[in-house]
Amino acid sequence: MINRLAVFGATGDLNARYLLPALAALRADGRLGDRFELTCVDRAGWSEEEFRRWAAEQLDLHGAAAPAEARKSVAESVRYLRADATSAADVGPAVAGDGPVAVYLALPPAVFPGTVTALRDAGLPGGSRIVLEKPFGEDLASAVALNRLLSEVVPEQAVFRVDHFLAMTTVQNVLGSRLANRVLEPIWNSAHIAEVEIVWDESLALEGRAGYYDGAGALKDMVQNHLLQVLCLVAMEPPLSLGERDLRDRKIDVLRSVRPLTDDDVARRTRRARYLAGRVAGRDVPAYAEEEGVDPGRRTETFAEVTLELESWRWSGTTFRLRTGKALGRDRKEVAVRFRQVPYLPHGLGAEAAPNVLRFGLEPESMTLALTGIGAGAGTLAPLTLTAQPPPPGLPAYGRLLLDVLRGDAALSIRGDEAEEAWRVLEPVISAWSRDLVPLDDYPAGSHGPAMREVG
Ligand code: NDP
Q1: Which of 62, 192, 226, 347 is the catalytic position?
Q2: Does a cis peptide bond (omega within 30 degrees of 0) precede residue 364?
Q3: What CATH number should be reported for the domain holding residue 212?
Q4: Active-site residue, 347 included
Q5: Pseudo-torsion of CA 222, 228, 231, 237, nearest 10°?
Q6: Pocket test residue of 87, 95, 107 for ligand 1, highest count of atoms within 8 A of CB
Q7: Is the pLDDT assigned to residue 300 strictly greater than 70?
Q8: pLDDT tens digits for 188-213?
Q9: Are 151 and 238 found together in one domain?
């Protein structure tokens, strides 16, 4: 187990909202040894005292689930350094120390290549690890280049391309439910399943994150990584084990099986849109183009939808719709598995049975199965819903990820070839959108999203 963690991007949103609280949860759970050292680094140039005070405030705000003593222990022991993450002279002292270090790049993705180059030039202690956040690169070419650069610094097993969706118990429940239940896996194929929807609709708007989001957009921020990873868990063949090799080999099989999209497919099977001014949960939200820090000329989408097909024995004939949007009227974060109609309904048993739908609620956690049963009147049918509430997770998703990084278990991180393959899946969409083959629609904030478009 590695005992040193250096977080670059100390005063950023990710560190404040997820990493520091996750460390407090790990501290409370007794997972961090007495020798554990945390160094937070950025270029703000605060004093250590100021940073510790800020960290304590953030922990109170975002980490209240962890006991006060654990929060205090994290805030009072953190070391703070000023450094430009792209300067070898600056990063050297931040990573120097006794034994290997895990370096967490909680930085804007555009800074990753400069930081990895600086780490290479400064040199890392043997056995060190590098953790990168999504999106991994900005397109296929930059992902390939970043993989090459990383391989000059540490071996592939020491690169953790984290995707916190994979560590969410709700997401893991998709795989757990499939593989641990006799009733599901035999019908988990295109003979029985017509459509799978993987949806992350949120009522949150930009919330001041233009600096990052305006350069990425919904497709690169959500679909290319989180939603494709969920697709992999839904569609993968049963792995031999949940070890890193078996799990990641089966995931990449899914990505490789995605039928390449032609321009015509992109025109018919994808949608993109931007929110206009509106009201969400009683709050006025400005149009995306008017949000502070947004360059309207970039035409960044805040809604993206892509429908994919998989070319495989198991899935040929099922559609997979991946959809995400910001500033929508309601939060809908789920995987909905829609089964085909029954082949025959005996006379006298109602006119039509609604298809069964199995829903995995990703946030908040839930699981429901829509069935059909006998209704009150003779010869009528009525919907029945079975609902289950899975137990709460022991650790927050980032706690589990950080523990895996420190322990060296890469099963839940994305392998280099997977990251490239995920870009390959979406390259046709990025290319067609950049050529305006798909219009940039709009939708009022607080609505259900853009209206369906007639495609000729
Ligand atoms: P922020 O913009 O909030 O924070 C980025 C941090 O990096 C800031 O502290 C910034 O400092 C610092 N930084 C930028 N350039 C340098 C540099 N050259 N040297 C030193 N520090 C630098 O971004 P987030 O925290 O939101 O995101 C970080 C990463 O995490 C991104 O890759 C994002 O995609 C990913 N992520 C974020 C999530 C979130 O909810 N926030 C969720 C999942 C992933 P300064 O203020 O000086 O620019």
Answers
A1: 226
A2: yes
A3: 3.30.360.10
A4: no
A5: -160
A6: 107
A7: yes
A8: 999 999 999 999 999 999 988 898 89
A9: no
